């Protein structure tokens, strides 16, 4: 297979973890005889500094002509700490999702047995937790009509039937491939937009008789994720709720540095870690590259390259078992490994196995 990958390293630790993701992808492609090429593009604060635009037209062009985007992170304190800034790095991420039509964000939440002690929850609660959060990505308050003033402000949480139906279809298809259990998360007792979500879901459920569908208010879902994370198989929800719940889900594993994600839809899919740019760690060689590397596994699997994705996952598990880990997940007294060293170890393991 020939793969053309747009690489958007972004800001903060982005370039460091991006380099490891690219190295792992190249090693796997070499092993399986695939031809892969990369084209770098600017996004976020780096793009603002260079062009004044967090998602320049040139970056959009590169993304549209690629088979997939390997994205890292955006964000910089000089914009975060200035509420008057007219342009922000995160606008680049939103623009990419909107302009590429990436309406479905897929975030797996899976624990690693050797790291359950790192979770803030008790081991007996989180061990074996394995579910997917599917978040609608291009509608809702983030993209609805807005007003920002000194005395009054609002964000409109608008959805159409078509937008709801297409993300529910994605969720049902994932549920069919897994344990056939779908939880639709809304706030239908309060919000009109949520009542539309629930109506559409109830209409679609009979089309998937092999899938058990249940409905849960978002506050209850947030509590249930902490009390009983193993209850969930596939969870689907709207943009704002999904943003919050997926970050909550990441804490179950004990580190945001372990979880990848995919954003799919009408155009080029994007694969990225769920964490931010962590600008305070930039250049220190301490950022965990595993979420970025596991994003590469998701990329391979998206193109039907299951064996390649499985090899990446085995390599990550091997690195954890060998205690080749960055500081935030290292065992007490374990050897010190940095971002580069973890990536290099995984590349070496892939070449040997």
Radius of gyration: 20 Å
Silhouette:
globular
Number of strands: 12
- In what range is the share of β-strand residues? 15-25%
Number of helices: 13
- Main sheet overview: 10 strands, mixed
Order of helix and strand elements from N to C terminus: EHEHHEHHEHEEEHEHEHEHEEHHH
Oligomer: single chain
The end-to-end distance, rounded to whole angstroms, is 21 Å
Cross-sheet strand order for the largest sheet: 2-1-3-12-11-4-5-10-8-9
Overall pLDDT? 94
3D structure, described in words:
Helices cover about 40% and strands about 20% of the residues. The radius of gyration is 20 Å and the shape is globular. It is an alpha/beta fold. The chain has 13 helices and 12 strands. It starts with a strand and ends with a helix. β6 and β7 form a beta hairpin. The longest helix is centred in the N-terminal third of the chain and has 19 residues. The strands form 2 sheets. It has a 10-stranded mixed β-sheet, sandwiched between helices. Strands 6-7 form a two-stranded antiparallel sheet. The mean pLDDT is about 95.
């Amino acid at each position: 297979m020939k793969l053309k990958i747009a690489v958007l390293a972004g800001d903060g630790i982005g370039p460091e973890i991006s380099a490891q993701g690219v190295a792992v992808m190249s090693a796997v492609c070499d092993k399986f005889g695939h031809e892969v090429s990369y084209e770098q593009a600017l996004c976020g604060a780096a793009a603002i500094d260079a062009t004044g635009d967090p998602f320049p037209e040139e970056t959009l062009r590169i993304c549209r002509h690629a088979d997939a985007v390997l994205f890292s992170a955006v964000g910089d304190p000089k914009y975060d700490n200035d509420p008057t800034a007219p342009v922000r790095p995160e606008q680049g991420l939103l623009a990419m999702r909107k302009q590429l039509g990436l309406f479905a964000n897929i975030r797996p939440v899976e624990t690693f047995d050797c790291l359950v002690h790192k979770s803030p929850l008790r081991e007996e609660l989180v061990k074996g937790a394995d579910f997917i959060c599917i978040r609608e990505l291009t509608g809702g308050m983030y993209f609805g009509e807005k007003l920002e003033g000194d005395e009054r402000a609002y964000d409109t949480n608008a959805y159409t039937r078509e937008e709801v139906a297409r993300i529910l279809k994605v969720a049902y298809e994932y549920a069919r491939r897994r344990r056939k259990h779908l939880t639709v998360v809304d706030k239908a007792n309060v919000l009109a937009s949520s009542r539309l979500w629930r109506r559409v879901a109830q209409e679609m459920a009979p089309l998937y008789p092999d899938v058990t569908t249940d409905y849960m208010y978002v506050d209850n879902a947030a509590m249930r994720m902490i009390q009983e994370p193993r209850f969930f198989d596939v969870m689907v929800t709207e943009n704002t709720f999904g943003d919050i719940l997926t970050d909550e889900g990441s804490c179950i594993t004990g580190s945001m540095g372990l979880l990848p994600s995919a954003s799919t839809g009408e155009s080029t899919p994007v694969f990225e870690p769920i964490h931010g740019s962590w600008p305070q760690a930039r250049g220190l060689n301490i950022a965990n590259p595993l979420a970025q590397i596991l994003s590469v596994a998701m990329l391979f699997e998206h193109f039907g390259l299951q064996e390649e994705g499985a090899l990446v996952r085995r390599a990550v598990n091997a690195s954890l078992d060998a205690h080749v880990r960055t500081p935030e997940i290292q065992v007490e007294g374990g050897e010190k490994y940095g971002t580069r060293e973890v990536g290099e170890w995984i590349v070496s393991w892939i070449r040997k196995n």
